[in-house]
Batch of 3 targets.
Target 1
Amino acid sequence: MPIAQRSVEKLIGLVDGNMQRAGGQKISLPILTPTGLWKKTGRLEGDISEFYMVRDRSGKQFLMSPTHEEAVTAMVATTAPISYRQLPLRLYQIGPKFRDELKSRFGLMRAKEFLMKDMYTFDVSEETARDTYSRVSAAYDRLFKQLEVPFVKVNAATGMMGGSLSHEYHYVSPVGEDTLMQCSACGFAGNAEVLDSATTECPNCRSSQLSQVRGVEVAHTFLLGEKYSKPLGATYLNTSGKPQSLVMGCYGIGITRVLASALEVLSTDQELRWPKLLAPYDVCLIGPKQGSKEQQPAEAVENELLQHLGQICGAQELLHDDRKELTIGKRLLDAKRLGHPLTIVVGARAVQQEAPKLELHVSGGEKLELDISEALKLVAEHSRQKKSLLAGRVREVEESRISQSIGHQL
Amino acid sequence: MPIAQRSVEKLIGLVDGNMQRAGGQKISLPILTPTGLWKKTGRLEGDISEFYMVRDRSGKQFLMSPTHEEAVTAMVATTAPISYRQLPLRLYQIGPKFRDELKSRFGLMRAKEFLMKDMYTFDVSEETARDTYSRVSAAYDRLFKQLEVPFVKVNAATGMMGGSLSHEYHYVSPVGEDTLMQCSACGFAGNAEVLDSATTECPNCRSSQLSQVRGVEVAHTFLLGEKYSKPLGATYLNTSGKPQSLVMGCYGIGITRVLASALEVLSTDQELRWPKLLAPYDVCLIGPKQGSKEQQPAEAVENELLQHLGQICGAQELLHDDRKELTIGKRLLDAKRLGHPLTIVVGARAVQQEAPKLELHVSGGEKLELDISEALKLVAEHSRQKKSLLAGRVREVEESRISQSIGHQL
C-alpha cells in the first residue's frame, strides 16, 4: 500500500547507497531460472517442496527463483572472457523472490513472495574473496547501524547455499523463528544451529550466562568459493591467460522483512514506530476543523507552517492531513496509527492571544506545546539527524548494542 | 546489466515523477494472482496460451500476472468501505510482468518477462473517470515529450482489456509489430486495427495521403468502466451511503520496451544514442595512456577536470574511464559503443604549449576541439538542458512532431 511503499523505497535507496559504496553495480536478473541450471549445481536434489516451478509453452521448466546464484553465475559464464583486471565484480539486484512456504505468516515477515537485495561477488582467489567479504560485511554493518534497530550478527551454518563462511544478521524479537544463543556477560551471540543449544557456557568468555533468545534473520552473507562457478563453468583469465574458476560470495538482505521486523521490534501496542530513515513521512501537519471558530486564523498559521516545513524537511516529507471535515482528534488518532516521527497540530491554542502554542507529538509518546519557531527548530533537528545518519554518522550507543560475535574475529 | 540498469532507474524516476504529478500513489501488487479472480472476470475464457500458470503446494492455481486489473480490483474490494470522499484513487506500480510469447525477440522489445508501469484508477462516475483519463493522458504526453523521441498517439481497440475508450502511444520504427495509418498531409494517425487498412483517404482531412508505417506500442491507456469492479464487487459508498460500482481506468507503460525501442529509433549502426534523460552517464572522461610521454602533465589536467565535472554534472553522472593500460583510441571506441552524450579526451594536445585543447565527442557524431573552459561550458549547458526537461519545459519542436490524432479530440 502507498504508505509502506514509501518506506520500502527509502530502504531501497539506503541499500543502494551502501551497496554502491562497497563497489556494487546494480543489475536485474530474470525471475524465471531454467531448472536445468539448478540440476547442474545439484540444488534440485534436496527438499524442493518450497520451490514454485512452471513450464512454458514449449515444456521447458523454470523455477520462480528463490535465489539467483545459478542465474548470475550462468550469466557471467556466458559473457566474453573476463580478465583478472576486471575483477572483483560485485553485482546486486533488488527484486521479488519466491518461496512456497508451508506456513506463511506475520504478513511481510514470512510471505511467499518477498523483496530481497541479493549481491553476488566474483573474485580471482579465496584471499581476495575474503577481502570482498569484509568489505560487503562492513557495508551491512553500516546499513544496520543507520537503521538504529538493535541487531546481532552471528556465525551461521551455510546450509543449502554451501560455502565456507557465513554470517547472519538478526533482529531479536519474540516473533523470531530462529533460536540464538546470547551471552549477557560479554555480548557474544551465535546461532543455536552451530552451537550446542543445551549449554549455558559462553564459548567466548566462559561465563555461564549464555541463554536463548528468538531472532528474525534479516540478512545473510556467504563466502561460496567455487561451488557454483565450477559446475557452471564461470571462469576468468589469469595473468598467464589461463581460465580459472571464479571465487564467489553472496549477500542477501530481506528488504520487506527488514521493514516488517523493524516495525515489530520498535512499535508498541498503541503506536507504530519506524526507523528514522524509513518513516514514510517525517512530519504530519493537522490543521483546524472546518467550521470551528478558530478556523480562519488557524489556517493562516497552517499555511505559514506549510511553507516553512516544505523548506526545512522537503515537501515530499510532509504529509498534510487536509481532511478538514474530520475533527482534530480523529486525525490525530490516524497519525498515531501511522507513527509519524513528528505530528504538528494547529488547533485553538495556536491562535490564542497570549503565548500561542502548537501541539507537537513526537513518535514515542512525548507531547509538547511549542511556539512556531520552537516547533520548526525541532523539525530542523530531525532533518539534521537524518542527514547525519545518511552520511554514515551512526550513534556510538548503537555500536555498543551490537553483540561481539564470532564474526568480529574474522 | 549495470549500464542499462542505470538507464532503467532513470526512466523509473521520470515515470514516478509524472505519475505522482497526476495524483498517482505507488503500490506493489503480488506477481502471483489466483486464477479464481480471472475466472470471475471471464478472462480465462479466451486464448490463454500466453499465460504462465503455476500451482502452489496446496494445488491452488496462480497466474504469473501479465497485468493486474483483477489483483488490484480485488484488493480495493476487500479494503474497508471506501467513501466517495476518498476518490479518485490512482494506484500504480512498476514491476515485472510475464507473457509466454510464441516468439520473443529483439531483446527487451518483446521479452517473456518485462518491466511495466501499470496504473489503475477508481472513480465515482464515468464523468470523473474521463477527467482522470485526461489527466493521466496529459502525464503520458508530458513524459513522452521529455524523452524527446518522436511518438504517435492513436485511437486503439480495447481488445481483451475491455472498456470504452483507449489510446496507444507508438514509436515509429521498422521493427515495430503494429501497423499504423499515418497521414502525411495533416499528421493524423490511427491503428490499422480500428481503421480500414486498405484505404488511403485520411478520415481527418480527407486527403489521400494516408499510408502505413510500423509502430512499436510503448504505452496504452484504457477507460475500463465497470468491467472489473462489477464481477469483483469493488464498490464505494455514495453521498447517500449506498454502495456503487467503482468506475475504473488502466494505464500502462512498457518500461523496458520504451528503453529498447527509444535506442532502436535514435541509434545508428555506428553509435548508440540515448534519450537525454536516460543516458546512463552524462559525461565520459578518458585520460592519457599509461607510459605515454604526456602522461604526467595530462593527468594534472584530468584531475582538474574530474573535480570541475563532478561539481557541474554531479559525480554520479560522470564515468571516468581510468583503464590507463588501454590506448585512448580503444577506450574512445568503447565510449562510442555506449553512446555517452559527451566524451572528453585528455590526450597529447591537452598539454601542448600553445592553445592546449581537449577533444570532445558529442553523441551524434560531432567532434570538437575545445579549451577547458569551453568544454566545461558545454557540459554545463547539457546539465541545464536536462534540468529544463525534467522541469517539464519540453521543446516546441517535439510538440509539432506529434501527430494530431483522434485522441486529441477527446
Note: The longest helix of chain A spans residues 126-146.
Target 2
Amino acid sequence: MNQENPLLEAFKETEYQIPGHGKRDISVLKEALETIDGQLESDVYGNGKVIEDFQEKIAKYLGKESSVFFPSGTMAQQIALRIWCDQKSLQKVAYHPLCHLEIHEEDGLKKLHGIEPILLADKERVITLKDVVNMKEEISCLLLELPQREIGGQLPEYEELAAISNYCRDKGIKLHLDGARLFEILPFYQKTAEEICSLFDSVYVSFYKGIGGIAGAILAGPKDFTDESKVWKRRHGGDLISLYPYIISANYYFDQRVNKMEQYYEEAKELAALYNQCYCVKTVPLEPVSNMFHVYFTVPKNELEPILRELYNETGIGLTGSLREVSNSECYFEVNIGDQYTKIPSERLKKVFF
Amino acid sequence: MNQENPLLEAFKETEYQIPGHGKRDISVLKEALETIDGQLESDVYGNGKVIEDFQEKIAKYLGKESSVFFPSGTMAQQIALRIWCDQKSLQKVAYHPLCHLEIHEEDGLKKLHGIEPILLADKERVITLKDVVNMKEEISCLLLELPQREIGGQLPEYEELAAISNYCRDKGIKLHLDGARLFEILPFYQKTAEEICSLFDSVYVSFYKGIGGIAGAILAGPKDFTDESKVWKRRHGGDLISLYPYIISANYYFDQRVNKMEQYYEEAKELAALYNQCYCVKTVPLEPVSNMFHVYFTVPKNELEPILRELYNETGIGLTGSLREVSNSECYFEVNIGDQYTKIPSERLKKVFF
C-alpha cells in the first residue's frame, strides 16, 4: 500500500522490530480500556474524576502544585510560554535552534502568540550556562528540552542544569522544561522527576513517547499558572468535552512503563555499542543518556535503503522504517527503546550485527 | 457526590431521562471500538486510512471538495475565520451576539488571531438579510449558526438563508456555517446537507451533539482552504499523533443516528407541545425546528429546583440536570432529543405532564 516508502513497508513486515513498544494500532486503546468499568463517567470540559485524579497524580509525581491535561504538547508549551511572557509583559523567550516549537509547529508561537524566540547554542550541542549568561537580550522565559531530541537525545550534566536554574532565578527568568521525554532521562541523572522538576518553574511531559499512550500531555506548575493555562486551553480549542480516551491510556501505560525506563536506558546503551562496532556507523550520543539515540551512516540514503531492506528480509528484524538524509554521503535514523527490544531473541539479534 | 448540584444528582438517579442519548460514560467509546479490528492502524499526524476515509466520507456528505477532522469546533471555526480574513487582508468578521466564539471561547478569536467581530441582530432573534445589508463595516466573513443554539435553536426560513448567501457572494463576503447541529435541522428544511452547505463557503459540523460521539469536528470547504486549515491545526496544537478515538466513535454514531434526525425532530415537537400545555411554561421556539428547544418557566430558579427534584422522585423521569436563571422570576433549561426519549413508556411520561 505504502509504495512511496518501501523501507517502511519492509520494516512493518519484519517479525521483530527493534525500536518502540509495538504497532500503533487500535489494540493499544482497547487494551487500556479493558481495565476500565464502562460506567465510569466521562470528564466534561476539564472536570470530573477521570481527569482530576490523573492531574493530581502527575502533579504529585512531578512535585508541582498543580497540573492540567492537554491534548498535545504543542498546545501546552505555547501556552506556558505565553503565560510567562504576559506576566513579564515581554514577548520574548529563548530556546535551542532545534526546539520543537521552532521546527515542528509551523511557527504557532509567533503567529498565534506574537512571541519572538532567541535561539541559543549551536545545532549540534545542548544549551550551556555560558549561552544563557552571554545572551544579550532580555527574555521572559528560557525553555530547556531534556533530552535534546533532534541531536540524538543529548543532556547537560546535572550541575550545569542546576547552575542554569540558579542563574535564571537570580535574573527573574522563568525556566520551562520541555520534558517530552522526562521519564526517560531519570536513570541517567539518578534523580527523581521531582528533583529535576524542582529546577523549573513549569514542566511539560508527554504520554506517547516512552510511556506509549495514544496522545496527550501534562503541563504542571504553580496553581495560578495552571489555572491560567486552562483559559488558554479553551482559547486554543483544547478544552474538549471529553479527553478520557487519552487520559485513560496515559494512566494505564504510565503505570506499566514509568519504572521500566532504567531497563530501556541499559538496552539503549547495549544496542548503541552494537551499532558502533559496525563499519561506517556511529551513534549520537556515542553512549546514550536515555532510551534514545541517533544512528549515523556515512553512506548515501538511497544506497543504504536497499541494503536495510535486504537485511530485514534476511534476518526478520527491522531497525527503522525511516531514514533521513544529512548530505549526499550521509544519513541517519532515530532509535527509541521500548518494550519490543527485549522480545528479540539474542541469537536473532546477533545475525544483524555480526 | 455532587452536592453543589442536587438537581443534577436527582436527574442522574431517575430511571428515564428525557434529553440526550444516554450517559456520557466510557461505554460509549467501548461500544464503538467493539466494531473495530484491533489491528487497524492509528492515524499519524493527520494521515492514514482511519482519518482519510472519514474526511472523504463527510466531505462527500456535505458536498464539499475536502474536509479535515479537528479535535474541536472551537479550533476549527477560529481557523476558518482566520483563513478567510487573511485571504482578504481584513481581520473583521460578523456573527450573532450569542455566537459560540463570542461567549464560550474566552475570546480566543481576538486573543490568538486578532480578529474583530461585528455583532449582528438582537440577542433574541436570528440574523436576517436586512442585518447583513445594513452592516456599515466591511468584513471578510459572515458566520451563521444553524440552528442558533442559545435562543433555543431557531432558524431563518430557507429563502432568507439563500438570499443572505447570494448577497455575500455578490459582495465578496465569505459565508461560514457553524453547523454544530447541521444534521438536526435537515428535516425542517427538507433539504440535504449538500443543499444547505452549497450556500456556504466553509462548514463546521460536530460529532458529539445530535450524533452523540465522544468529541471532534469536521471543517469542510475547497481544497486550498482545508489544506491551509491543516497548517493552522498544527499551530493550534490540534494535529495530534492519533485522533482515532474520536474519529472511530464519530463514524460509528454518525452511521447509527444521522438518519434518525427526523424522528428526533418529530419527538421534539411532541414534547414541546406537552410543555406548552403547562402553567407558567413556554418553549422557545414555540414549535421546535430541530431536535432542540428551550423551556422557560416564569418561576424563580430556586423555587423550581425543589419542585423538579420532587417530580423526578415521584415519576422516575428526569427533565433536566441544569436550570439557568434568566431573572429573579424566570429560568429555563435546554432540551435535546436523542435516543432516550423514545424509550420512555408513554404512560410514564403522561404522569409528568398531566
Note: Chain B touches chain A through 51 residues (CB under 8 Å).
Target 3
Amino acid sequence: MTGGLLTDLYELTMAASYLRRGMTGPATFSLFVRDLPPDRGYLVACGLEDCLTFMESYRFAKKELDYLREEQRFDPATLRALEKLRFTGDVSAVPEGRVVFSGEPLLEVTAPIAEAQLVETALLNHLTFQTAVATKAARCARAAGAARVIDFSFRRTQGIDAGLAVARASYIAGFAGTSNVEAARRHGIPAVGTMAHSFVEAFPDEEAAFEAFTADFPDRTTLLVDTYDTLGGVRTAIRTALRADGPGSLTGIRLDSGDLGALSVQARHLLDEADMSSTRIVASGGLDEYSIAELTAAGAPIDVYGVGTKMGVSADAPSLDSAYKLVAFADRPVMKLSTGKATAPGAKQVYRGTEGDVIALRDEPAPGGSRPLLVPVMRNGRRVSPAEPLTRSRDRCAADINTLPARVTRLRRPETGAVALSPRLEQTRDELRAELLSRVHRLRSHA
Amino acid sequence: MTGGLLTDLYELTMAASYLRRGMTGPATFSLFVRDLPPDRGYLVACGLEDCLTFMESYRFAKKELDYLREEQRFDPATLRALEKLRFTGDVSAVPEGRVVFSGEPLLEVTAPIAEAQLVETALLNHLTFQTAVATKAARCARAAGAARVIDFSFRRTQGIDAGLAVARASYIAGFAGTSNVEAARRHGIPAVGTMAHSFVEAFPDEEAAFEAFTADFPDRTTLLVDTYDTLGGVRTAIRTALRADGPGSLTGIRLDSGDLGALSVQARHLLDEADMSSTRIVASGGLDEYSIAELTAAGAPIDVYGVGTKMGVSADAPSLDSAYKLVAFADRPVMKLSTGKATAPGAKQVYRGTEGDVIALRDEPAPGGSRPLLVPVMRNGRRVSPAEPLTRSRDRCAADINTLPARVTRLRRPETGAVALSPRLEQTRDELRAELLSRVHRLRSHA
C-alpha cells in the first residue's frame, strides 16, 4: 500500500516547515535496531522490497491534498510543493535474508530532508515488522533440524497484509512452504495444506470423511487424525488408505493437539507396522522454536512442523527497538543525547570480516579481508536493479546463519555477534558529543 | 484487501471436496476466544467492519483461478464452481466496541459449508488482531484516568494495514486521536503530532528550531524538549514562546525519554512559574498501560500520553486464542473432542443480564431482563445496515467498560466476567459428547 498520508502527522508538519524555509540540503537518516530482544543473538534483515516499492511510488493524491487543506489547514504554497513532491533520494541497504546485529544500519536514506522525513514511518514499519518475523522464523527452522517447517500463521497475523508478509519472510528464513494461498501465488512459494476438524465433522463419521478426502485428493492425502481420538484416528487413516490404493496412498497424517512427542512415536509405530514408512507425520498446534527444539531433542519422529501464530506475530518479541535517526544534514554530522537513546553521527557502512563486524563512516576504506553489508539499492528515487528472486534472499539467509557460532544461535540468552565501531566513527562521535555537551552546559549556566 | 485466495490452502481443498459432493447444506461456524491472556479480564470486540467488507466482496479473479488450475491442479468442474462462488450466508455478530468474555461467540456464520469455510482465515485474522489491540488500547485509556491518550504506533505496527486498523481500534477503545494521517483521513479520527528530534537537529541549535516551528505553526506549537537536555529544552521552549506571542502561544511540550514522572513535575513547575499553566505536557517513549498506571498513581502532571509500539502490537498478548468452529451442519449439532480444544455444539446467542452473561442455544428464549449480544449483520451475503459511525462503537465501548467491576478491569491478574452456559446448551453438549465418546470406545474395542 502506498500513499502520501501513510506517515505520521509530525512528518508532514516538519516537511512543511522545511519546504517553507528552503531547507532542501541533503539529509542522511540511518535505520537500525538499538538493542536486540532478550532471546535474540542475531536478526534476519527483511522488508526492503516493500520499502523500495513505497519510496518509488510516494506521492500525494488529490483527496490526500484536499484532506491536508481542509482538515489540517495546510497553506497553498505547501500544498503545491507536496503535490510535486516525489522521493528523489539515494538509498543503501542490507539485502534481505542477511544476518545483522544490533546497531548496524539496515538502511540509509540520503535525500532532501522533507522527503527523507516523510518516508520514515513506512520504512520503520516494514523493516521492523518483517525483520522481527524473519528472525523468529529462522529460529523455528533451525530448531527443527532436518524436519521441514511450514507457515500456518495466516489466520492470526496482525492483518491480511501482515499474513502475506509473514509467508514471504518465513520462506526467506528457511520455511518450506505456506498455507497462505495468495502469498504462494504472489511470491511463488510452495502452498501446503491438509484438512480441518470441520471437514471430519461434516461427515457422518471420521471414516467417511477420510474416504471422501482420499478419493478427492489421491495424490496429496494428509489426514487430520485428532478430531475425536488421535490413535483411533491414525488407525482409521491406515484402514482407509489400505482399502483405497494401498500403503503408499497416504501422504501424511497431522497431529494437532495433545502430547505431540508421545503421539508421534505411537503414530509412527502404527504406520510402520502397516508398511507405511513413507507416510509423513505433520505436527501443529501452538508451536514455536522452543517447543520444536524440545521435540527435536526428544527425537520425536515428526517430519513436518506447521508453525502458526507464535511465529506469525513473533510472539515473544512482536516488535524491535528500531530507530530512524538523522545522522548528517547539509554535510555536517548530527546526533542526539536523549537519555538512553544517544545516536552515532554520520553516514555509515558495515564491514564484515573474519573478526566480526565493524561499523564505520561510509567514506572510510574497507578493513582488509572484509566486505560491505550495505549496498546501493536506489539512486535518485529509482531502484538500481529489479527485485531479486526470493530464493536468492533465502540462500543468503541460510548461508549467513550457517556461519554463526552456537553461542549466537542458541535459543535462550544467546550472545550477539561481535560489532565494533571504527576508530574514526568513535572519534567523530566523541568530538560531537563533547561539543553538544559543552553547549548544553553553557545554556545551563545562563539559565 | 479482498480476494478469493486470501485463505489457507486447506479451505480451498475442503471446499472443492464439498462442492464436488454436493454438500451444500447450511453449516454454522462460531468464532470465539477460548481463554483470555493472563492479564486480561475482558475483551473489546473489534474488526467486524473488515469482516463484512471481506465477505461481501469475496470472489475469485481470473488470475486466481489460473493459479488454482496451473499450480494446484484443480479440476475444471471445481474451477467453474469457484468462479461463480459468492458468500451468500447469514451472519450475526457482536457489534464493535462491545465488551465480551471468553467462550462468547464474537460472530456466527451460517452458509453453505464451502463458503463458510473459505472465509474462515480472514474472519479469524481481522477479529483476533483487532480485538487484541482494542483491548490493549482500552486498558491504556483507562490507566490514564483523566489524561488523554493518543496513538503513536504506526511506525512499528505489523504492517501498514495493521497501522490503519490500530488507529481505528484504539479510537474505538477510547483514544483521543492518532498520529497516523491516512487513518485520520479515512476514519475521521483527530490527527495529532508534534515534532521529531531530527527537526531540532536540522537547525543550528534547539532555540533556532523552536523559533522556526513556533513561527510556522503558531496555533499548534508542541515542542519536543529532550533532544539534548530536557529541562534546558523546557527553558528554551518557554523563552521562545515568551519572545513570540507570550505565554499562551505554547500549546505543549513533549517529553520522550528519561524519568517521565520526575521530569513532568519539574517541567510543570517551570511552565507554571512562567505563567504557562495552560501549556500541556505530552509524554511518550515505550509507554503501555502498566507504566501509564504508575505515572497516574504517582500524580505525574501529564496531560497527554502518546502510546506507540506496545499498544500497536499488543505486546504482552499479540494474539488471542481464537477459534472458528463448526457447531452445526445440515441441522445437526457437531463438536470435536480434541484434547484441550473441545467445543460446544449448536448455533448460539449470548444474553447479558444483571447476574452476568449466559451463552445459550440461539433458539432459546432470552432470560428475563437480559439482552442479546449477537445481532444480525448480514443476510444472504449482504449487510443488513450500513457501517455504523465510529463514534457509536466508541460510545458503546466506554459505556460497557464503565459497568465492569474493578476486579475485572484491574491490570494485573483480573478475574474474567461471569459467563454461564444455559442448561439446554449444557445438556446438548453432554449428550453429544457422550454419543461421540461411546462411538470412539466402540471403535477402540474393534481395533
Note: The mean pLDDT of chain A is 94.
